[in-house]
Amino acid sequence: QSGFANDLIKAGGVAGIGSHGQLQGLGYHWELWAMQSGGMSEHDALRTATILGAHAIGLDTDLGSIEVGKKADFSVFDKDWMTIEPIEIMDSETVMTIVDGKVAYER
Length: 107
Known about the structure:
By secondary structure, the chain is α+β, with helices and mostly antiparallel strands. The protein is built from 4 helices and 3 strands; from the N terminus they run ααααβββ.
C-alpha cells in the first residue's frame, strides 16, 4: 500500500497521511513512516504530510505550508523524525508545538 502512494506521488498525483486516532497522534507518525517504508523520499513524505494532504481536502490556501496568512500549527523536535522509528519520537528530549502561531507546548 505505501509503495502505491510513492508511485502516485512520483506520477504527479496527490496523497495525504491519515490515522484513526490510535495512541493520541502516534498513529499519524506510523502512517508517515509507512510511506517512507514504501520507498518514498523524506521530501515527498513531508510534502504528503503537509501541502499535498491539505490540497487533497481543499484547504491548501489555509494549511499545509508555513506562509504569511496561513494557520501555523506545527511541532519542532530535537531529532530528525523523518529518519527514525516512530516510537523514538516519544523519546525526543525537546518538543515545541506551535498553534495559531503561538507556543502551546514546550518540553
